[in-house]
Amino acid sequence: MPTVKDYRPASTGRFRRRASVFDSIPFGDSIPFGQEFQLPSKRRRWRIVWRILAVVVSIALVYIFIGEAAVVPTASMEGTILVGDHILLDKFLYGPSVPFTSWHLPTRRAVRRGSIIAFKFPLDRRLNFLKRVAAVGGDTVEIRDDILFVNKIAVASPTSAIPIAKRTVS
Description:
By secondary structure, the chain is of the alpha+beta class. The chain has 1 helix and 9 strands; from the N terminus they run ββαβββββββ. Among the domains are: about 70 residues, Umud Fragment, subunit A (Ribbon); about 35 residues, no CATH class. Strands 7-8-9 form a 3-stranded antiparallel β-sheet, with no helix packed on it. The longest helix has 25 residues.
């Protein structure tokens, strides 16, 4: 039986090709009769399982505690964020929740007027809703003639949520 030349380079500079189980088998031939295919050693299997587990745990920790990617589902913030925009939600600053409990980690930043927040829609927990904060705890909110008033001061635009000078509304 003629042997087929292996055209793969043996090594290139400091990078060496690792020996494989298939190196001893000529191309086009099956495993010779009487020899069995050797599985990777137990140590190597554990190394692979350990690496896969480390990647899965790392992804879960990032998703739970640091942030997640989301797609804007509705047009409620059309002036600043469009439907279908991809955004990164920062959970770390606003106290991420501990999985399978009702506990939250301490917040690093308080929610302020004008901030954009994300929350799960109560009727469909799969949807992330994005809204701009118009008022915080203790503020009085009122809408008169399609104008937003926060603490009896008119807000320039719902997209800014920053009060402007008092103006009279008839």
